[in-house]
Write a structure and sequence with these properties.
Layout: H1 2-17, H2 21-25, E1 27-37, E2 44-57, E3 60-67, E4 71-83, E5 86-89, E6 92-98, E7 106-118, E8 124-130, E9 136-142
Antiparallel strand pairs: 1-2, 1-9, 2-3, 3-4, 4-5, 4-6, 5-7, 6-7, 7-8, 8-9
């Protein structure tokens, strides 16, 4: 009887200690984007971009990127965990909607990579890669784009 009581208490304790990261990271994150692609020797940078994170399940989120220049991207059921004091997001396939050369926007495959948010939510960055324009790498970061002369 005592063994059953100890097991019951131990199993309840495990449930209470489970961290649901999707609730800790949800929200909007504003920043800037650097875009590197083969048609430009220097990355193009702009302010005013945003990533929004919405919970979709236990430790799963939807990540949406909205760029002033580079379109919108969406990644469903992105796994989120904690490592070394940061929230980290699993590499995930999704889509990006981009318009080029005055043509209507079209949807292209994209990959979310290297996305992390510090636990205090002051530092964050993400990489979105797509094959558009011979391979485009968007790097989103907190803060403002650096001033270049």
């Amino acid at each position: 009887m005592l063994a059953v009581a100890v097991f019951t208490l131990a199993s309840c304790g495990d449930d209470d200690e489970k961290t649901l990261y999707q609730n800790l990271v949800q929200g909007s994150y504003e920043g800037w984007t650097s875009a590197a692609f083969q048609y430009s020797q220097e990355p193009m940078e702009n302010d005013g971009d945003k990533i929004t994170i919405t919970p979709t399940g236990e430790n799963l989120v939807k990540v949406e990127y909205v760029g002033q220049t580079w379109g919108t991207a969406s990644f469903e059921n992105v796994q989120v965990a904690e490592s070394a004091g940061n929230y980290i997001f699993a590499e995930t396939e999704g889509t990006i909607l981009m318009a080029m050369a005055g043509r209507p926007a079209a949807s292209y495959p994209a990959t979310l990579k290297n996305f992390s948010i510090s636990k205090n939510k002051q530092e964050y960055s993400a990489v979105i890669e797509t094959a558009v324009m011979g391979g485009t790498v968007l790097t989103f970061k907190n803060g403002k784009a650096p001033v270049r002369e």
